[in-house]
């Protein structure tokens, strides 16, 4: 039986409380050297791409910056353009919002990165209907859930129309006249849509990979359909085996209606890992990391997000209080809203009672991020099993340390995946589309 090839990407940790700030090895989230270290480590491991998330506003909890969150993040496309000069093969993926940008301007910035990197750019398409985030922008947070996906779909269609408006042979060279544009090779883009109107010519020719890879991260019905019609990669949250298999089957079956084949969309959940010389050592390290990621203030903030009321009087190291949620309010701003908070609260209460958990222990339990825990051999086997079982095509790995958190994985796990024959030993292509095999 032919074994599937595993695809891996590296996520620069940030935007939320994933980073363990208290570890003495934790470095800067702003110093360019941190980005260089992690990107080059991922490239040394022959990863498909390096991924930057986006935070357009710092999360707040009752007027204070959310405990343990990243409090500074440079703009992604600027960072990736700089990284293009100090890396050679790895893809460079930026999260950029379609709610608070314009198609022509963003298409031009992404195409610029694609040219500077010689075909390694990717765009993680996200949307926002959060009025709190919208306060930083003229447009504000006025779009409802369905409308923001309609805007995103029109945005991506228009960006692709701009990227494809130059014929592949548009730019030519002549010994006497130098480089020139062939007559009729640059089309005029005329678009009149619900959200955008454009008339003009794009300023850049097609890049070596045609146009940037499209990544999408939504999980709603609209998000899955948008991904099936448009995306090259899904940044999925379904990292358990059974959830992953159900999501994988659901999205892959949607491709046929858009004339697409299963290999043209890669499903890559976010995943974390903790390595140890024994499984027991890895489990102990994972528990210690989780306690560092969820401090007392963070635990209360998570609880208040579900309960919708001030819980600051309760001890995070004490039991869950016997008080019902207030479903009419939200006290944490800048997070994705929790759907059906009454059901979530009931589930949390049952879990706390079953395992006799304190508030902080409960939050650690329900927000656990460690996907793969064990020895390098065990982690390599787990990753391989997920991919061969059609629960994923690969994973976007999120280390808990900046910038050296990926080093151990590349040194100890990647060689084992290569020995299994399921991960490349080096790059065979030069563009991100070639790495992902989605062309």
TrEMBL record:
Name the record gives this protein: FMN-dependent oxidoreductase, nitrilotriacetate monooxygenase family
Domain of life: Bacteria
Keyword Flavoprotein: yes
Residue stretches making up the Luciferase-like domain: 25-389
Record carries keyword Protein biosynthesis: no
Pfam families given in the database record: Bac_luciferase
NCBIfam families for the chain: FMN_nitrolo
Signal peptide interval: none
Keywords assigned: Flavoprotein, FMN, Monooxygenase, Oxidoreductase
Species for this entry: Thermostaphylospora chromogena
Gene Ontology MF terms: monooxygenase activity; oxidoreductase activity, acting on paired donors, with incorporation or reduction of molecular oxygen
Family the UniProt entry places it in: Belongs to the NtaA/SnaA/DszA monooxygenase family.
Binding site residues for FMN: 95, 145, 149, 220
């Amino acid at each position: 039986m032919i074994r599937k090839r595993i695809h891996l990407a590296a996520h620069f940790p940030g935007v939320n409380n994933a980073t363990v700030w208290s570890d003495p090895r934790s470095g800067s989230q702003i110093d360019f050297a941190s980005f260089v270290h992690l990107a080059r480590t991922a490239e040394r491991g022959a990863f498909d791409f390096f991924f930057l998330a986006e935070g357009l506003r710092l999360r707040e909890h009752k007027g204070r910056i959310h405990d343990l969150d990243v409090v500074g993040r440079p703009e992604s496309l600027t960072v990736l353009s700089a990284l293009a000069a100090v890396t050679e093969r790895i893809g460079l993926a930026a999260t950029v919002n379609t709610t608070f940008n314009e198609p022509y301007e963003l298409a031009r910035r992404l195409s610029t990165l694609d040219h500077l990197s010689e075909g390694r750019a990717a765009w993680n398409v996200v949307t926002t209907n959060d009025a709190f985030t919208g306060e930083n922008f003229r447009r504000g947070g006025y779009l409802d859930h369905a409308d923001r996906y309609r805007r995103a779909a029109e945005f991506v269609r228009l960006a692709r129309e701009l990227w494809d408006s130059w014929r592949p042979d548009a730019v030519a060279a002549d010994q006497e006249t130098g480089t020139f544009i062939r007559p009729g090779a640059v089309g005029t883009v005329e678009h009149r849509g619900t959200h955008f109107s454009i008339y003009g010519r794009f300023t850049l020719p097609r890049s070596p990979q045609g146009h940037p890879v499209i990544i999408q991260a939504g999980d709603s019905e609209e998000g899955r359909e948008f991904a099936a019609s448009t995306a090259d990669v899904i940044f999925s949250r379904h990292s358990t085996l059974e959830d992953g298999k159900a999501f994988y089957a659901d999205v892959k079956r949607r491709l046929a209606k858009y004339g697409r084949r299963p290999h043209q969309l890669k499903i890559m959940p976010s995943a974390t890992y903790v390595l140890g010389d024994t499984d027991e050592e890895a489990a102990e390290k994972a528990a210690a990391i989780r306690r560092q990621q969820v401090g007392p203030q963070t635990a209360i903030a998570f609880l208040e997000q579900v309960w919708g009321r001030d819980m600051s009087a309760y001890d995070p190291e004490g039991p869950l209080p016997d008080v019902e949620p207030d479903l009419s309010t939200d006290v944490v701003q800048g997070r994705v809203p929790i759907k059906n908070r009454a059901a979530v609260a009931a589930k949390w209460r049952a879990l706390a009672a079953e395992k006799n958990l304190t508030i902080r222990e409960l939050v650690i339990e329900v927000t656990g991020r460690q996907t793969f825990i064990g020895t390098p051999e065990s982690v390599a086997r787990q990753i391989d099993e997920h991919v061969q079982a059609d629960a994923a095509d690969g994973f976007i790995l999120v280390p808990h340390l900046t910038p050296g958190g990926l080093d151990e994985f590349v040194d100890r796990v990647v060689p084992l995946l290569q020995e299994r024959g399921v991960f490349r030993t080096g790059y065979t292509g030069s563009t991100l589309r070639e790495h992902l095999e989605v062309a």
